[in-house]
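Acyl-CoA dehydrogenase family protein
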Amino acid sequence: MTTENWNDDARPTTSEGWTARAKEVAAVLATDAVERDQANRTPHAEVRLLKDSGLVTLLGPKEHGGAGESWETAYRVVREVAKGDGSIGQLLGYHYLWAWAARLVGTPEQIAAVEQLYTANNFFFGGAVNPRDDDLVIADEGDVLVFRGKKSFSTGSKVSDLTVLEGVLENSGEHVFAIVPSDQDGITYGDDWDNLGQRLTESGSVLVEDVRVPWSSAAGYVDKQFQALTYNTLNVPTIQLVFANFYLGIAQAALEAGLSYTAQHTRPWPYGGDNKESATEEFYVLDAYGDLQAKLWAAEALIDKANAQLSALLHAEREALTPEQRGEAAVLIAAAKQRIIDTGLEVSTRIFEVTGARATASSVGLDIYWRNLRTHSLHDPVAYKRVEVGRYALLGELPEPTWYT
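Predicted structure tokens:
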């Protein structure tokens, strides 16, 4: 991967400018995405690319050197980067969530401190968060919390400057989030992420041994009591929509790769009785691409609608959010996620039908799109997203907030 250096360039000042910058980053990533996927090396250079381009501080406050952009822009940026490399799109999307984590659950003082810290220093976030398992236990030692345990997944932590730890407080069972330096003796990375897809996300295990955090850094806690708001529960819809956007980026890249290969390499079938001079004239090829493009446009429109709706809530006053607003956004996101999973998997599979046998060569790398989508779309069962939408449509029920809803 050859990297561009944007350090001497003026930073974009509009949403459109940042989307264009993301496309430039994606173009760099796409040049050797297949080779880097096959090598499965830790993506230090890729994260440096995100930093140098200015994308890391997209949501950061302007007074600290950030772009002060909206989540609607951030979602589009994630989508564009994922077109170049699905793994790096995921890393950037997760970073945006963790960069916003203090705003989601923190106190005003914590929000100000965290946003200044990461924006001014161009820091990149990872997260060792898996609320499904109580595998990280927190001991209360007076003014200090001590994290101990092992997380099965820690996306991006090894290439990050800051890591969001999530654990369960002994005795109370309360979940606590805290931001800590990633490079420290108490955190050991397992280097055991070797999965089918999203191979460059550094999503392996992490061992946490006696990581000490002052109570003042426990996100949202005042005098050891969590200050609950409905706004706190936007964390799951926010990350679920991150998923939908980088799924869409991967699917769009798959379709573009198929179209390009067909136009340049696929041969027409010589035994059809109505032989064509080019594969681009084949009726079944045109039919397939027309079907897939229409479905992707529909998924994109639904995701864009969800992006606009959730972004408005994320940038509104935290205290003003109602459970109804939260629930309606969650339903729309559930619909968008299920639609892009189904469509994305179809696109990344059917492109082989219209590119031909030679397109299955490892050097072509068309398999990367299906592998990436198939791997991450198993994060949580999509059937439950369909049920959420079904309950809303049939019964008028809004989903209750959980760690996956």
